[in-house]
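Final report, closing paragraph on structural work. Over the funding period we assembled a curated collection of sequence-structure pairs, and we close with a single example.
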Amino acid sequence: MRGVTHARGAVCAVAVALAAAGCGGGGSSSGTGAAVLSSSWGDPQNPLEPANTNEVQGGKVLDMIFRGLKKYDPRTGKATDMLAESIRTEDSRNFTIKVKDGWTFSNGEKVTARSFVDAWNYGASLRNRQKNALFFGYIDGYEKVHPARGEQTADTLSGLKVVDDRTFTVRLGQKFSTFPDTLGYAAFAPLPRAFFTDHAAWLKKPVGNGPYAIQSYMKGSQMSLRKWDGYPGPDKARNGGVDLKVYTDTNTAYTDLMAGNLDLVDDVPAAQLKNVRSDLGDRYINTPAGIIQTFAFPYYDKAWNRPGMEKVRTGLSMAINREQITETIFDRTRTPATDWTSPVLGTDGGFKPGLCGRACEYHPEQARKLIKEGGGIPGGQVRITYNADTGSHKEWVDAVCNSINNALGNGKACVGNPVGTFADFRNRIGRHKMSGPFRAGWQMDYPLIQNFLQPLYYTDASSNDGKWSDADFDRLVDRANAETDRAKAVTLFQRAEEVVRDNMAAIPLWYQNGSAGYSERLSDVALNPFSVPVYNEIKVS
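Its predicted structure, as stored:
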């Protein structure tokens, strides 16, 4: 997802403001009388098109209003069938997908095989400029609908065929044994005909097929979602709805929670971690999540991409005292990273503790040596860009800079470079306007090692914000995707990860736990392995 931020934008968007429903926790209700809860949130970057959302805030909404062929278990992360009645293949390249009967969108339209095929063709098309287009890159015909250069020469993917109302086939350009496991990601969600016939109206008020429907949205203030009573799935909402309230400061959200003006905070600020247990008791959640925090680099800037810079990047990594920072700033909600994935995957799933080796350990003397050998820090100073509105980023960026400055014996070697809002931050990244390292945390889209590597480091991948490129890495990823033996595929992915390590393509910092706090009105509150609240299971008294 999207960068953390998946690290993954969703805004009903544009500058259109719909009337927002009432604010606050405590006692609001849906039209049917069921109680509604309020939760902290941040304005997403882009419109809520499923294939155009690759960050957390938009992803939260898509997870509430859409259901796809697969769904990731909220406790284990395992991909299980949702709208898929069956997904069959004999060669890991040609797939026949049958859609369950009885599903509709909240506007009454029936969900059919074409709902998926049309949505995927839209997402892949170059002219639609969808951020997640590359997720369709393995389907035959992608190079014609989304060429690397020039105009597209086809409107639809040749590898997608509608067989009948409930059946369609997918032909991939190469074997991809874990392809079905990716289909719970929001980019693969179905879309109603209304999305295509009146796109502007749909963007103002998106229509999906999930347990919630959007009632209203006022950018910068609140999005109100309400339980959809006609939802046919097994995971119906147990509350009347959710009011997602926009906060530009997580400390303010926490204060509102403590004052009874908010029901749920799903990102406890670092400044409150010392007292959150005494404040909330068992209403505080701290659980492992598929999230890693990193620094990315602007490889489109020649100063950061010249020969020898891999030594400078590795030196900077070795100048960061991860153990000290995670202990003093994050109070046991972060763990120093020793690879580029997440412990949530488990070793069978590709997590390899220690893969980074000494490069992710604190060795100040070696850090100074490597930076000097690599030609020094471009411009003499590292400016780490981050968004200042959510995530308590200032505290840890300052701590990282202090560590680098101490290691290098230069009080001005590293400084933080805050950007006001997450949307502005992401827009600068998208325009390739970064002149130095920038925070690039990643929240998994699906629990596969491939998802921690390919979207971030593959040439021209959807979330390769720094534009890093390495032919050896790309070849290893292609081989891993084509491998039908899961264990062999994992080994190949780990070899690709070693290429990331040897080039220090991005600096891994720490694995992140999901943290949340909630009011006495709520029960059955939990975070899924993506660190997102399982909103539909929450009960409100």
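Confidence is low (pLDDT under 50) at residues 1-27. Residues 260 and 537 are 21 Å apart (CA to CA). We thank the funder for supporting this effort.
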